Amino acid sequence: MTGLGVRSSSYGSLDKTGLNGVVLPIQATTIRNKPSKMHKEREGVVHWIFKFAGRKKVGMLLLFLISAVVFLRVLFVGKGEDGQEVQVPPSLHFNGSSVVNHSNLFNEEQNINIRNISFNVVYSPPPPPSPTHFLGYTLPQGHPCHSFTLPPPPADRKRTGPRPCPVCYLPVEEAIALMPNAPSFSPVLKNLTYIYEEPLNRDTEFGGSDFGGYPTLKLRNDSFDIKETMSVHCGFVKGPQPGLNTGFDMDEADLLEMKQCRGVVVASAVFDAFDDVKAPQNISKYSEETVCFYMFVDEETESILKRERGLNESKKVGIWRVVVVHNLPYSDGRRNGKVPKLLVHRMFPNARYSLWIDGKLELVVDPYQILERFLWRKNATFAISRHYRRFDVFVEAEANKAAGKYDNASIDFQVDFYKNEGLTPYSVAKLPITSDVPEGCVILREHVPISNLFTCLWFNEVDRFTSRDQISFSTVRDKIAAKTNWTVSMFLDCERRNFVIQRYHRAEQERFARQKPPVPSFSPPPPSLPTPVLISSDLPRKVSSGRAVRTSPPRRRGRDRRSGARGHRKANLPVRLPDSA
User: Fold this and answer.
1) Of all helices (H) and strands (E), which one includes residue 27?
2) d(CA 270, CA 56)
3) Which of 69, 126, 230, 570 has its CA 20 to 30 A from that of 47?
4) What's the pTM?
5) Which of 229, 220, 221 is nearest to 186 (CA)?
6) Separation between Cα atoms, residue 151 and residue 576, nearest integer Å
7) What is the rounded distance in angstroms from the CA atom of residue 237 to the CA atom of residue 204?
8) What's the rounded Cα separation, in Å, for the pair 386 and 493?
C-alpha cells in the first residue's frame, strides 16, 4: 500500500514514515480497542461514500476537497494580511517615504518588498551636533539677491563724481534670522591677549605714545609672526581695564554698560565739535532694542550737545548713547578718533559684531541688513569699502600731501619705510585683492581673534607713523595674509554710499550759513513797467527837399547778414509823420 510522507532534509526526498515512524495511509483502516462514537460516525460516512461511489472516484473527491480547502485558506489569509497593519520599527514612519533613524539598518536608499507591499526607505543620519564655527551659507537659486547684478552707472555728464549704487538687502526679519549662532573660524590664531606696562617702557627706535606704548621694531616684526597664542600691544597700555586710568578714560557706569553689549555695536565719535551728531534713519524696532548705538564725544562736543540737542542725565541723543571721554591721549582729534574706530573690540569686550561709521556720516539702513549683506553672506570677518578713485598707496600718499592732510616729511618717511619692506605699486598681479587703498570711514567686522589682531596692528602703525590709516592698511593686511589664509573683504565704494550719507563737517555748515543771503520775510512788489521812450535814431529825418526820410540801420556783415536773410527778420514799418499846415 502506498502512503504520503514528509519531506526530509536530504534534497527533498520523501520518507514513507511519519515524524514518529508511523506510516500515513490513505485508505488503511486503523483498529482501535475502544473506538469512540465520533469515530463510528466518521466510519459510517466513509462507508456511505464508498457505497455510492467507486474507489477511484473517492480519491478524486478527496483531492478536490483538499484543493478547495487550501484555496479558501489562501484567499482568507491574503485578505486578512492585506487589511492588517504592517508592523515596523517605532522609528520607521510610513508616509510615502519613510525615515529610519537606525544607522545600522540601511546605509543608503533601498527598495524593500514585503508580501507585495512596496515602499521606499530613505536613510536620514542623526542630526549633526551644533557647529563650533560659522561656515557661511548660499542664498537659493531663485532668490532675487542671488542673481542680482549692478546696473551700469547712469550717463550723467553733469555729475562725474562718486555716487551710490543699488544694493540687494534682505528684509530685516530674514537678515535677523540668518545671524550666525556660532563665531567664524579664526585661522592659526586662537588666543589673543593684550600688553599693558607698569611702569611704561619708552625705549624704542621711533614713534609710539603713552597710550599705545613704545614697541620696538623687533616687537613689531614679531607681532606679524602669527601663532596660536599671542600677546600684542593694542592701546590702553597703562592698565588692564581699557578706559580706566589708561587715557581715553570713561566713567565706570559707562564701562559697565558697555560690557553688557553682547550682540551688535554701532559706534561713532565726534571730537573737537568737528561734526554734528546725526540720527540714524530706517532703523527697525528690533534693532532699537537689541543693537548698542554708542557715540563717543569729548567735553567740548558735550557742551554743544547740551546747548543744542538737550543732552541731559539720560545721556541719550535720539538713539545714540553718548559717552563722554576724558583725558584724551592725543592732541589731534583725528588721531583720537582712531581709538574707537580700530579698538572697538577692546571697549566692548563681549560684543560679537561692530559697525563703525565716521561722525560725518548718517546711517540710513538697518545694521542687521548691512551685516548680512557684507559679512554673513560673504562669510567674511572684516569688510571695508575700497577708495572710489585710488587703488595704489603711492598715489594715495601723494594725494594726502597735495591736500595737506599731514606734513609731507612724515608721509615720505612712512612710505619709504614700507617700500624698503617690500611695498610695491598696485597692479593686477595682486588679484584677487582689488585695491590697496580703503575708504576707511566705514568698517564692518566680527570680533574674532584674527580680525582683532588686524585692527590692533593697524592701530600700532597709526600710532607709530602718521594718522593717515589708508597708507598703513595694505601693509598690515598683506603681512597677516602671508602667514594665514585670512584677508579683508573689500566692497565697492558706491555700495557704501548706499547705506550711509556723507554730510558736511560742522565748520563747513557754519560757513555756508554765513554765505547764504538773508531771506526776506515778505516778497517785494513787482516792478512797474517803464514808460516807452523814443530814441532819436528811430525818428524820421528831414532833408532839404522837405520830405521825411527814414534813416536806414547799419548794414549787417558776415554771419549777422546771413542770419538776417532768413524769414525771422522783423518788418521795418514805415513811420509816417503828420503833414505840416
Assistant:
1) none
2) 119
3) 69
4) 0.68
5) 229
6) 69
7) 15
8) 6
* Cβ-based neighbours of 98, under 8 Å, separated by 6 or more: 88, 92, 119, 120, 121, 122
For 147-162, what is the mean pLDDT? 79
The gap from C-alpha 70 to its chain's centroid, in whole angstroms, comes to 73
| Residue at 74: amino acid letter | V
Q: Does residue 164 have a cis bond before it (omega within 30 degrees)? A: no
Predicted pLDDT at 273:
86
| pLDDT score recorded for residue 536 | 43
- CB 409 within 8 Å of CB 417: no
Helix or strand holding residue 448 (H, E): none
Q: Looking at this protein, which amino acid is placed at residue 308?
A: E
Distances (CA, A) of 39 to 23, 29, 30, 32, 63: 20, 11, 11, 10, 22
In the structure grid, which three cell numbers stand for residue 52, read together? 455510492
Percent of residues, the chain, with pLDDT higher than 90? 58
Residue with cell 594718522: 467
Does residue 360 contact residue 404 with C-beta atoms inside 8 Å? no
Q: Residue 509: pLDDT band by 50, 70, 90 thresholds?
A: low
Cell numbers at 254, concatenated: 559707562
Cα–Cα nearest to 346, from 272, 432, 265, 407? 265
- DSSP strand E in 117-178: where? 117-123
Cα 463 from Cα 348, distance rounded (Å): 21
- The answer to whether 353 and 447 have CB atoms below 8 angstroms apart is yes
Burial class (CB in 10 A: 0-12, 13-18, 19+), 434: middle
Quickly list H helices, 178-233.
217-223
